[in-house]
Amino acid sequence: MRRFTLLALILALLLPLALPFAPVAAQENIVEARLQAYNASLPPAYGNVSVDDLSVEMIENPDLLIVDVRQPEEYAEGHLPGAINIPLRDLAKNLDALPDLNAKIVVYCGTAFRSAIAMTALQVLGYTDVRNMKGGFNAWTAEEYTTTTEVFEAQRSTAPDIDPELLSAVDAALSGIPQGWGAIKAEDLNIKLIENPPVLLIDVRKAEEVAEQGYIAGAVNWPLEQFMSFVGELPADKNADIVIYCAVGHRGNMAATMLRILGYTNILNLAGGFGAWSTAGLPIESAAPATAETFDLAGLLDSYISNLPASFNAIRAADLNALLAENPDILLVDVRTADEFDEGHLAGAINIPLIELTDHLNLLPDLNQKMVIYCGSGHRSAIAMMLLNLLGYQNAQSLLGGVKAWTAAELPVTTDVVEVQEGVAPEFNPDLLAAIDAYVKAIPAGFYAISADDLNVALIENPPYLIDVRTDEEVAKGIIEGAAHIELRSFVSRMSEWPADKAQPIVVYCGSGHRSVIAMVAMQLLGYTDVRSLAGGVGAWTTKEYPLAVPAAAN
């Protein structure tokens, strides 16, 4: 059974959809592999940049390339200063007009509908810093920013070396976009659902959005962050009718573009998204709240871990220091004891000891609050980060290396205490909150960490079951002898490879100790009673000059 997020699981139970389509067989090709990798590392804010921020950036960064993907006649009527024109359908044929794959690029069109498609296509091709101007040219002119009719020619050079199969798929996806750019109005979708079924209707919003706002009857919920994990459930017929929607249309276009690159030819995206549907007064189904019967902890853990960003929500000291300079509103949460906190902490931090975390969620009243959690070494804060992420605090990160890394970078600490702003704790699924509260209250002294020295002794005297959660590439460079290898992203989906005896001593490790804490907590929440994480990971192990074995082949 495919695992959803907690609320997505609810919708799966509430939104049965009997589709007369055969599932697509799993494909092992460069196109699907690239889309899977892209989907696992979606850009912040889904790649959007506001017109206000762009106007400033254009002044500060003259090397920024602005690409207008409208038709030539639209471009001729007026465009952003310095913008070159590459119509959307011709984009993949004109990559020699773009700088290297790491260049800063902003794309725009009239309303941001076409440019969302262009941005996604370029990102899939490997361009690492492509953004979409939110609201398009209409938003730019509404703010009365400067426009021009001067024509700016592209500085052409050699196109980047991109896999031909991938480039061909992206070119076909863009050049084949139908008249109307693949958009469908709410009223037309309503008629289509009545008169021309079957239609695969896909809601790519987050499950919590669906639960709060409702959904269009008959839709399946495939959140954008997990979209490619549902590829096996797509219709076999590449010409099947598929309509996608999100909140306003942007995420829907990202998903629609991925499907077009996969070869699906009849993809429409709801213009204006669910907001347009609601504004048109069209019928909305409501989602029931979670209950104990729909609570699936294993499914929640699988979805959470497999969809973590590339950083696994860890942040380094130097990056945090720079981030605080840009955004002083970031909440710092010190989860050490009160005594440790009093000896010195990051300026502006509040103190919530780890074992009291669930007692003070009223100090964290906003689920969208950007926060960084830290402790002494990064071990306790990784535990806290994961638990808060599971509760819905998706913008919570952990300081890698903790206060030790912060002070090693010669960054300041203080003994000044800020006034704590209390609020009202958010509403949580009661079963999930109860499980996390029980877990927090049972955390022992030592916080389930094991040092390299102690692990070395244990391997001689009473060997635990070792699990390495690093990537294949990391493992290929050396593994602690005897360890099983289960990469973190697939950790819960491969539960069948865990020891059958939940009381068996287990030690999990990674490179630094951050990822292994995530795996450790997952096992503990699922009933394993003797799991620990190697403090400092392989880095600490090799610093002590303990050996690594080179595996014959990665598992």
Polypeptide structure, described:
With 555 residues, the chain is of the alpha/beta class. Among the domains are: 6-16 and 183-292, 3-Layer(aba) Sandwich (Oxidized Rhodanese, domain 1), CATH 3.40.250; 297-441, Rhodanese-like domain (Oxidized Rhodanese, domain 1, 3-Layer(aba) Sandwich); 449-543, Oxidized Rhodanese, domain 1 (3-Layer(aba) Sandwich), CATH 3.40.250.10. The chain has a five-stranded parallel β-sheet. Strands 6-10-9-7-8 form a five-stranded parallel β-sheet. α5 packs antiparallel against α7. The longest helix is centred in the first third of the chain and has 13 residues, at 113-125. Mean pLDDT is 90; it is low at 1-28 and 289-294.
Kindly provide the name of the CATH class of the domain at 297-441: Alpha Beta
Shape: globular
In helices, the fraction of residues equals 25-40%
Order of adjacent strands in the largest pleated sheet: 1-5-4-2-3
Kindly report the CATH topology of the domain at 297-441. Oxidized Rhodanese, domain 1
Helix/strand/pairing category: alpha/beta
Report the total helices: 21
Mean pLDDT equals: 90
Features:
disordered N terminus; 555 residues; alpha/beta; Oxidized Rhodanese, domain 1; five-stranded parallel β-sheet
Map the helices and strands.
Blueprint: H1 6-14, H2 30-39, E1 48-49, H3 51-60, E2 65-68, H4 72-77, E3 84-85, E4 105-108, H5 113-125, E5 130-133, H6 136-142, H7 164-175, E6 183-184, H8 186-195, E7 200-203, H9 207-213, E8 220-221, E9 242-245, H10 250-261, E10 267-270, H11 273-279, H12 297-306, E11 314-315, H13 317-326, E12 331-334, H14 338-343, E13 350-351, E14 371-374, H15 379-391, E15 396-399, H16 402-408, H17 430-441, E16 449-450, H18 452-461, E17 465-468, H19 472-476, E18 484-485, E19 506-509, H20 514-525, E20 531-534, H21 537-543
Parallel strand pairs: 1-5, 2-3, 2-4, 4-5, 6-10, 7-8, 7-9, 9-10, 11-15, 12-13, 12-14, 14-15, 16-20, 17-18, 17-19, 19-20
Helix pairs in contact: 1-9, 5-7, 5-10, 15-20
